[in-house]
Specification:
Layout: E1 2-5, E2 18-21, E3 30-40, E4 46-59, E5 66-69, E6 77-80, E7 85-90
Antiparallel strand pairs: 1-2, 3-4, 4-7, 5-6
């Protein structure tokens, strides 16, 4: 959508008209993951080696915000994100 705007004063002097382009971001980011030094078992369980890690890739076509995760029903952890695409590496 676009918003066109201007203002006048009491003497009827008018500012130049301007247009704002406005977009509503209603699409959530996408998250994919891959495993390094481990594998995904046939039942979907991730099996990691001693130095294994899970790498999450978070993408959004506008701008990222935050990534949240928790382990074994523990407290939620928050990681600030920047840009449109970012990897988050978990060494668990």
């Amino acid at each position: 959508m676009s918003i066109e705007y201007y203002a006048t004063d009491k003497s009827n002097n008018q500012t130049p008209k301007k247009i704002l382009a406005v977009y509503k971001d209603t699409t959530p980011p996408t998250i994919t993951y891959r495993v390094e030094n481990g594998y995904i078992d046939s039942d979907g369980t991730i099996v990691l080696g001693v130095d294994g890690k899970i790498i999450f890739t978070i993408e959004d076509d506008r701008a990222l915000g935050k990534f949240f995760y928790r382990i074994d029903q523990g407290n939620w952890q928050e990681i600030p994100l920047q840009g449109k695409k970012q990897d988050v590496i978990l060494n668990v």
